[in-house]
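Hello Y.,

Per our agreement to keep a running log of every chain we model this quarter, I'm adding this entry. I've kept the format consistent with earlier entries: sequence first, then predicted structure.
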Amino acid sequence: QAHLVESGGGLAQPGGSLRLSCAASGFTFSVRAMSWARQAPGKGLEWVSGIFSDGSDTAYADSVKGRFTISRDNANDMLYLQMNSLKPEDTGLYYCVTGFLGRNADSRGQGTQVTVSS
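Predicted structure for the entry above:
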């Protein structure tokens, strides 16, 4: 059974940066596409970014394009999200999810909170 544990969230000022990490276990990480999703207070789940199993392709929501970078380390079963130029609207609970932007999304972690505020 897939187990995903996110970390790296916290409080950042507008314009600041955070790097989220996701430690994966319980499945063959290197053959699965992976994604990051977020949920802001009172809103639905938003797909932020996805990456193919071998890292050969990535995709981003328009709201984060040019500011966020998704990456993965298949040797260590890790997924990352580098977030730069953070905005208050980036505030939310960020989840690591199996699958690509909702496709084959059968597991997700408990989430890590990101708060962007001055």
